[in-house]
Amino acid sequence: MQLKIASYNIHKGVGLDRKRDPDRILSVLAEIDADVVVLQECDRRFGRRESVIPRARIEDSRYRPVAIDTRPGSLGWHGNGFLVKKTVEIIDTAALTLPALEPRGAVRIDLRKEGKRARIIGMHLDLSGLMRREQVRSLLAHLDDLGKPVPTVLAGDTNEWAARGGVFRCFGDSWNVLDCGRSFPTRRPIARLDRMIVTNDWNVDEVAVHHSLLSSRASDHLPVWARLSLG
Question: 210: which DSSP letter?
Fold first, then answer.
């Protein structure tokens, strides 16, 4: 089973031209053509926390939103959400509250493709290094509480500037921290903030930053993606 996963901090749909353009975000995602998209900053911050991408526009694309059962009108939880291709079967979801000085959360889906089960967590970690480590420990504890291990991917904006250390020290030998490339800031990428961390069940076939004319304008982050496979 092969799965292409993308992670994208869409900056609430606001590009470098300071215009909110959800269609531009969807066009970038069409360029990547991932099976699963992990989004950060996909909801408005205040008020009803509505999705910045209208659901009707999503449904007209090759994707469908994953219902996380949080606020009506929101795409996810604390700005974290999933879009999946319409052929991907979702078998479980969860909204996770993370330790933080300001509200932070993560989202989890379990999916089935070609008869194999996989688990993906979308996250947007804190600016504080100490808090980032606490948040990752909380996510790992959640996975332990689920019981039988499932091939798992953690994906999102880690806010970690260190290439190897920092929050990545929280992951043991059963995890593989992928370097997808420099993704922030869009205009002149210097930092590898957007990452995927995968269990060793996965074969890592390809990882990359998606840098196109559209993606260079659509957000302050470039999307990253990985093509993974299970034997």
Answer: -
